[in-house]
């Protein structure tokens, strides 16, 4: 790449935006000295931009990016689907993220291409009523000129989103644009799964005596209920807190694990968690946080794996007084194993979703029904937990009914060459299959093909033969199964808007986020931040900024307090 001052400026801008660098870095004497050294005699200090120049260039690039998006969306092959969500910065200011997803034909290669862009990262003042949010949301789509092209809007299940969609329906119908509050809405599927898990956990705490209402003999459930009344998940959290109360305790627990592995002591005492171990893993305990997929399951899973070592460590003479309360009885462990087995079902579904960079709508109903099927089976294998499982099944069926108010899922399923109408036949939804067949033509295809690549290859030869099918495919394929595209933006924004840099203006913050989304687009994984990360909830280190901000934003102050109390303290 030949050197030029313009290229230098562009690379500095990209580095600042993509790497979440402070704009003030260009004023640092040593940074400027480094660039002068690397530039040898080709640049002088006046060639290195100052803060004002960097800021104005970022805003100019943002303006050009917006114009490019507006122009590109004029030529989409189908409708523009959207995702939206809200985020609060360290100052408690709220921002609305809106991402757009659509299909275009590449001007050079003529290939059908899927595009996702960040339209806005907009400051939202005032109360978060659905009406207020709709005004900001509509203003954004109007800026881009896509109000007549809206496909599906994917959002979570918050009640103000119901009002938002009602207000959006009224606004668009008033302008003569067809739109339906239910038909054009997709409910974030991972959010539904997490709501279901939280419902199970809440019921376990709220109704520990529920197994008494089952058909099981009273003597079979008495000790089980006793353990449930102790709240075994809270007991696990206390054990984690106790074993991590100091650096010395953490090291001693690790030493206990290592010594047991050397002597083969754990070979016959490890608890079955569905995986085989030749020795006990030399890992640390995990803490949980309900804003992350599966984090409670992972905490329990790790606890059960390490329990023989925990039990031995807590029973040592030097620990017996301080840690006696941390020991769980055999009955408690049996109950905990059942809870672990139950939570593994939604965890498996979440793992399936997180394996996809962009979860597709065609996955939703099959995973819905798989979840319900597995939970119904669990009522037989885990009869004492059946009252809690019934709550989960009821919650899933409720949301499944809401999702059936739109035909987008059926269309998406049929458009998936690995599913087509097979899923509807197997699930027994004859009426749904008939409706889907009337909406589009059936195509014989091979399995295991990338959706966009498949339809590109198919329509190379059939676009003019099946124009209606082409239009349906271009409308449906970009629709998102979850709102995590926005959540991914919010996770990224936490790196930009830190406590140390919380005075960034709203306009500049939006420009930074939109440009960063473009620069980092090739590496985006929209499900990465839904999954519990060990670095966020592990035994080592401080409470991560990501976990702290999420709990603050969710108003989970008590949970944050527990997390901080469990955080790493100085060594004894």
From TrEMBL:
User: Is Zinc one of the keywords UniProt gives this record?
Assistant: yes
Domain of life where this protein originates: Eukaryota
The answer to whether UniProt assigns keyword Metal-binding to this entry is: yes
Annotated Gene Ontology MF terms? protein dimerization activity; zinc ion binding
Listed GO CC annotations: nucleus
An example Pfam family from this entry, by short name, is Dimer_Tnp_hAT
Annotated compartments: Nucleus
**Classification via InterPro entries:** HATC_C_dom, RNaseH-like_sf, ZnF_BED_domain_contain
User: What SUPFAM superfamilies has UniProt attached to this entry?
Assistant: Ribonuclease H-like
| Keywords, alphabetical | Metal-binding, Nucleus, Zinc, Zinc-finger
Instruction: Give the primary localization class.
Output: nucleus
Query: Which segments constitute the HAT C-terminal dimerisation domain?
Result: 448-516
Q: Where is the signal peptide?
A: none
Return the protein name.
Answer: HAT C-terminal dimerisation domain-containing protein
